[in-house]
């Protein structure tokens, strides 16, 4: 297997944590995609992922799988012993629900603020992010507010349970952790009152897969 990505960015981090959790890091080859140079927006890369995003999982039979959720689900179930995506219908449903909330209300919001409310990843990438849109700054600010609201939501969730989707670490935790990572890049601070979210982040950061991903 191959993983096409760029280390240090939030979505590649999600899959690298999943690989580490499953003990698969040494079984994949990492292919560097130069994001600052917008390599992911060029025809050769678009041929393997028309969405122009990383990471992409390349299987040995030539199949390309994009989207972190799909990649994580595939990796987690390779050995028939899923630990990140749930083992019962209820667990799977709750994890999928919470990880989607993590994407929409935190990860994507923080990412939109980074790309539209700040200089982002630089002028080459910005050229693919509606650079001349007059409302970009205002929308970016709204997305920043949405990310902060997402932090408050997850703080409330974590005041009542140990992990984002219940009693065990899951794909949903990886997504929210990556959302906070994106918030850091955009300099969006966790509100002072979100003590449960801060404590959860500290605990998650101590996991070997998170502290030292592939």
Q: Could you characterize what this model shows?
A:
By secondary structure, the chain is of the alpha+beta class. The chain folds into 2 domains: 2-77, Glutaredoxin; 89-207, Glutathione S-transferase Yfyf (Class Pi), Chain A, domain 2, CATH 1.20.1050. It has helices spanning 10-21, 43-46, 68-77, 89-117, 123-126, 136-158, 171-185, 195-205, 208-211, and strands at 2-5, 29-32, 56-58, 64-66. Helix content is 52%, strand content 7%. The longest helix is centred in the middle third of the chain and has 29 residues, at 89-117. The model has no long low-confidence stretch (mean pLDDT 93). The radius of gyration is 17 Å and the shape is globular. Helix 1 packs antiparallel against helix 7 (171-185). It has 9 helices and 4 strands. It has a 4-stranded mixed sheet, covered by helices on one side. The relative contact order is 0.15.
Can you give me a brief rundown of this structure?
The chain is an alpha+beta fold. The chain has two domains: 2-77, Glutaredoxin; 89-207, Glutathione S-transferase Yfyf (Class Pi), Chain A, domain 2. It is built from nine helices and four strands, in the order E-H-E-H-E-E-H-H-H-H-H-H-H.
């Amino acid at each position: 297997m191959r993983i096409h990505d760029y280390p240090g960015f939030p979505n590649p981090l999600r899959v690298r944590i999943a690989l580490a959790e499953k003990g698969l890091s040494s079984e994949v080859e990492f292919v560097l995609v130069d994001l600052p140079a917008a390599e992911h927006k060029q025809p050769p890369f678009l041929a393997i992922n028309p969405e122009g995003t990383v990471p992409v999982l390349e299987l040995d039979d030539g199949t390309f799988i994009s989207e972190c959720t799909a990649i994580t689900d595939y990796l987690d179930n390779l050995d028939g012993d899923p630990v990140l995506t749930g083992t019962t219908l209820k667990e799977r449903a709750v994890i999928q629900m919470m990880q989607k909330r993590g994407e929409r209300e935190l990860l994507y919001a923080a990412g939109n603020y980074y790309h539209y409310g700040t200089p982002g990843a630089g002028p080459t990438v910005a050229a693919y992010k509606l650079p001349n849109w007059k409302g970009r700054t205002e929308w970016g600010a709204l997305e920043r507010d949405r990310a902060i609201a997402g932090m408050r939501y997850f703080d409330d969730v974590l005041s009542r349970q140990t992990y984002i989707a219940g009693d065990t670490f899951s794909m949903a935790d990886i997504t929210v952790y990556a959302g906070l990572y994106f918030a850091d890049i955009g300099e969006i601070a966790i509100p002072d009152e979100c003590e449960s979210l801060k404590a959860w982040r500290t605990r998650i950061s101590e996991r070997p897969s998170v502290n030292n991903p592939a």
